[in-house]
Design goal:
Layout lengths: L5 H4 L10 H5 L5 E3 L22 E2 L9 E7 L8 H15 L3 H5 L14 E8 L7 E3 H14 L10 E6 L5 E4 L2 E2 L4 E8 L3 E6 L5 H4 L4 H18 L7 E2 L14 E4 L2 E4 L2 E2 L4 E2 L1
Parallel strand pairs: 3-4, 3-6, 5-7, 6-10
Antiparallel strand pairs: 1-9, 2-11, 7-8, 9-10, 12-13, 14-15
Length: 274
């Protein structure tokens, strides 16, 4: 999902998850901007929302997620961003068989067991060249075209998740909002089960959250990874009508896992972020 401002995140309950046109206008999938902690507390006189509790809505889960990273733009071919791309791939190789994935096992359901995943490949594309902004619709179109025509990019199946990393200076316009103004990343699905996550480069304080570029990207990536596994069709997997997805409840609460910064994720079992 996206990282957005808290106000936008609280509007998630208005969504009708079975209607794609409504879902595309609702920011439930986003990673919100990092804001001062006092802005996350209910204002005086405002009743605090109910405690979080994810419930299963019967939709698919990514049981053995297969991540493919796609770096878009020439800047990913030269240092320092080429080095950053390699570090992101190393992060996925580590995290997909880590305790973070073990933690998601509590959201297994009969016939759908969540286990470890794998990084199945990576590619860099340079065409078409990106300008200062790109729409989510254009990203979907490009991804679909690459899947059809680029032999290095695998065809989707029930566990494939494409992570798309954009270069510095390119903002994403999605659902009427813009990256670095309203969100830092998101995941979604389109077509016949193409699951994807979009990671705009963290060019702003709200998407860095006081972290390095690598740490901000691994935090946001872990947020979207866990949400895509447990709720690949937003609102049809594990979801909370007030608080959103597993990562939204714990947005910008981070920890070190091995050498990497990851976000805490909500645990129904422990009734806390962990």
């Amino acid at each position: 999902m996206k990282r957005t401002s808290k106000t936008i995140v609280r509007n998630k309950s208005t969504r009708s998850p079975n209607k794609k046109t409504e879902r595309m206008n609702d920011p439930i999938r986003i990673v919100p901007l990092h804001l001062p902690s006092e802005l996350y507390r209910p204002a005086e006189g405002i009743v605090a929302p109910p405690a979080a509790q994810l419930t299963y809505r019967g939709g698919p889960l990514l049981q053995t997620v297969k991540v493919f990273t796609l770096f878009w733009g020439q800047t990913w071919q030269t240092s320092p961003n080429s080095d950053l791309g390699k570090q992101i791939n190393q992060f996925f190789k580590f995290v997909l068989s880590s305790a973070l994935l073990d933690q998601l096992a509590e959201y297994s359901v009969p016939g759908k067991t969540i286990g470890h995943g794998s990084l199945i490949g990576t590619a860099t594309i340079t065409q078409p060249a990106l300008s200062h902004s790109i729409t989510d619709a254009a990203i979907q179109q490009r991804l679909q075209q690459e899947i059809k025509s680029n032999s290095s990019i695998p065809k989707p199946d029930a566990n494939t998740l494409y992570f798309i990393y954009l270069p510095p200076g390119t903002a994403v316009v999605q659902g009427g909002s813009r990256s670095c103004q309203a969100f830092c990343g998101y995941h979604d699905t389109f077509g016949s089960g193409i699951y994807y996550a979009v990671m705009p480069f963290p060019n702003c304080a709200g998407c860095l959250g006081g972290l390095s570029s690598l740490d901000a990207l691994t935090s946001t990536s872990s947020h979207e990874l866990c949400e895509a596994i447990t709720d690949p069709i937003p609102g049809q997997g594990w979801y909370d009508d007030t608080h959103g997805e597993i990562g939204d409840i714990c947005a910008w609460k981070t920890r070190k896992l091995g050498n990497y910064t990851v976000q805490l994720e909500w645990s129904n079992k422990n009734n806390s972020c962990r």
